[in-house]
Amino acid sequence: MEPVSLAFGVLPVIGGAIKGWQIVHKKLKVFRHYSRELQRVQKQIDRQSHFFRNEIHLLLKPAVQDVSIIESMLRDPEHALWKSDEFEAAMRASLGKNYDACLDVIQEVGSTTERFQELFECFESLTAQKRPVGQFQTSASSRIAYLIRTSRVAKPYVVCVIG
Amino acid sequence: MKVSYDETKLKGYIQDIRDSFDDLRNLRAQTSEMNKPWASLATKTDLKKRGTREYDQLFAIRQASTSFHEALGLAWSETATHGGAREVRHTVRLFLDTQVEDDVYMNVVISCFGHGPDDSFPEE
Questions:
Q1: B30: nearest CA in chain A?
Q2: For B3, which residue in chain A has the nearest alpha carbon?
Q3: In DSSP terms, which residues pair with B116 in a beta bridge?
Q4: Other CB atoms within 10 Å distance of the CB of residue A122
Q5: pTM higher than 0.80 for the full model?
């Protein structure tokens, strides 16, 4: 076993990637009601998140075997097993020489979820207005005033105008 | 209030994610294949067919080997008794590599120790 993995644990990478998906999902969930475009984006992102969970489920299955434990791990990025040495040893035994390659790919997924978060940072300005989320979701006047345009002249930016 | 995000980036990231999933899926499938015991790679039908074929070949090989052994033994005993020579003791090892097609083909290696008169052969 590598010293680095002993010191910091390698499997939290998976928990971190799951957390990344959860953050992106929450971010889009708040604003999806305002346009079909955002609904479409959220569906796309959620679909990828679902694929990721399925892949991780299948990856953990030979090492964990108990489906209920796998489900609770997928729900909870802070689950104790993500940091357990025994679990890491079981995963290493199960994946063999593909262990490091698998973690590399999962780390890539985690990095991409971070890029998603950065991409949707634009929504932070809305939450920074300290307007309660319910107001976005329920206010009829806001919904009517909402407009979405897609400009594809230079760069295809999706512009959401919330009045 | 206006908020905007780059759709090109979004599409690129989604493609990145899909590529990563493909890699993960491949690695998982390869791991699964690599961990499978050899026998389970074949289907039951394949195993049954192969088993029957191997059994038939084994029967043919055993029959051919026994005949070969008897022929050698007969030739040896005839040389020893009718040749007027004194009876000799020996240790012979036969190594056979067989290939079964219509007939049984054999590559044969014979090693012989202690060939000589009975009294010259060391007691075991």
A1: A98
A2: A160
A3: B89
A4: 19
A5: no
Q: What is the value of ipTM here, to two decimals?
A: 0.71
Nearest CA in chain A to B4: A159
**Residue A116 burial by Cβ neighbours in a 10 Å radius (0-12, 13-18, 19+):** buried
Task: Provide the β-strand partners of residue A95.
Answer: none
Q: What is the rounded distance in angstroms from the CA atom of residue A63 to the CA atom of residue A142?
A: 50
- From the list A48, A119, A159, the residue facing B9 with the nearest CB is A119
Q: What is the distance, to the nearest Å, from the Cα of residue A44 to the centroid of all Cα atoms in its chain?
A: 12
- Percent of chain B past pLDDT 90, that is, above it, reads 13
Residue A101 is predicted with a pLDDT of 92
What's the whole-number average pLDDT of chain B? 76
Q: In which region does residue A9 sit, left (phi positive, over 0), alpha (psi from -120 to 50) or beta (all else)?
A: left
Q: Which two tokens stand for residue A32?
A: 């999806």
Separation CA A3–CA A9 (nearest Å): 9
Q: Which two tokens stand for residue B107?
A: 């590559």
Q: Which of the residues A59, A61, A104, A105 would you substitute to probe the B interface, choosing the one with the greatest number of B C-beta atoms within 10 Å?
A: A105
Instruction: Quote the tokens at residue A101.
Output: 């390659």
pLDDT in tens, B77-98: 776 666 555 566 777 788 888 8
Q: Where does chain A have alpha helices with state H?
A: 3-8, 12-31, 36-64, 67-75, 85-95, 99-119, 124-127, 133-138, 140-145
B36 and A CB contact within 8 Å: no
The string of pLDDT tens digits covering residues A4-56 is 333 345 577 888 888 888 888 888 887 777 778 888 888 888 999 999 999 99
Does B3 contact A125 at a Cβ distance shorter than 8 Å?
Answer: yes
